[in-house]
Write a structure and sequence with these properties.
This protein folds into two domains: 45-172, Rieske [2Fe-2S] iron-sulphur domain (Rieske Iron-sulfur Protein), CATH 2.102.10.10; 192-351 and 363-372 and 417-423, Naphthalene 1,2-dioxygenase Alpha Subunit, Chain A, domain 1 (Alpha-Beta Complex), CATH 3.90.380.10. It has six helices and 24 strands. The protein has helices at residues 68-72, 204-212, 217-220, 257-262, 322-353, 368-387; strands at residues 45-49, 57-58, 61-62, 79-83, 86-92, 98-102, 116-117, 123-124, 131-132, 138-140, 156-157, 159-162, 165-168, 174-176, 192-200, 232-239, 243-252, 269-277, 281-288, 292-304, 307-317, 393-395, 401-405, 416-423. The strands form six sheets. An eight-stranded antiparallel β-sheet has the order 15-21-20-19-18-17-16-24, with helices on one face. A four-stranded antiparallel β-sheet has the order 4-5-6-11, with no helix packed on it.
Length: 424
Amino acid sequence: MLSGMSLEDEGVRGSGERAVAPGPVLGPPQGRGHRSVVRLTREWYVACRSDELEGGEVGNGVAGGGSLPERLGRRSAPLAMTVAGVPLVLFRDGTGRASALLDRCAHRNVPLSLGRVTREGTLECGYHGWRFTGEGRCSAIPGLCSPLEKVYRVHSYATREQDGFVWVCPEPDVIPERDPLRVPALDDSRYEHVVRRVEVRASLHAAIENALDVPHTGYLHRGLFRGGKKNRIRAVVRRYRDRVEAEYLGEPKPPGVVAKILAPHGGGIVRHWDRFFLPGVAQVEYALGEDTHLVVTSFCTPVEDFHTIMFAVVSFRTPLPGALVRRVLEPVARRIFGQDAAILAKQTEAIERFGGEQFVSTEIDVLGPSVWRLLRDAERAEQAASAHQGTPRHTDGGGAAATRGGATRSIADEPVVHAVDLEV
């Protein structure tokens, strides 16, 4: 031992045990702890497809065989889904309406999703059999001999069915004012529609930025989409209060498998738009000539801080038979989605390892910073609305009091416009 050095200086306590450090001694440089995560709960998010709940609608039709009374009379398992960190259980009540309750029985806190849906359309807990209506009221307690006089409830959440999806608001007793975005061309017989559910280990912001990011496509998806000769194009960005859009001008038909499938005979200039709509919709639109049109609408649902589910609807029409294009396009789309999911997971791993984000951006990160500003502004507005006292109350059709939340989708506000040149 060196002269003048004590046992404590060597990291050894008098008892002979080494001092326990509060965390790892060796590790990467730690960031400032910033994470691009927002909490927006007064909004509509997709919880599931309608046909995942017994008796649901798909497009303009009804899923499953048999008449509506027959379908409603079947017993079916409820569906568990977490939205914005809130554990929910979804099922259809006695009228066929999609219902969402907090996934926790009022009796002993067992998840209600472990139970079953009765023939009468109530949700029966799998532990003691307590039954709950679609509004969250306990309607029966098996074994209780006296009348059920006290009202027992679990939180209920507003739901809405639209375009083959079940939407839910993860704030109890709130009905969002901002309507969900519609799936484009759903009633146009010229279009084919492919729906895919993709889970990514990433924040809502990261998932949306990835879906709308042009520069990465020539590298991560090289050969499938872009990756050939570079072309200089211009992006005109228009930012509104509830959305942002980039229109790309002067873009030729990109090389790669996707373009060959969608426009086998065409070349020339492409019309291309990327859009974000609050709270979590990414939309990519391509028009190649007069005959080819492709729109990918991704409804993104935040599950947890770094867990997002994307319900992607690919709507397209081409000169080729739709069924043929679908068979060829689907495996290519799965590969592209898989590449994005893998790189987003690695991004999240790095953020966690380094203790937060440390991003730098340039002007060719066309939409990511604008998406983040819109999300943060919406979060601040929601926090202010939640703190405001005396908010008017409304009735949600089922008799329960509900607060109107969020904001109506704006279509008349003047955009902030700027242009960016980039090579892709």
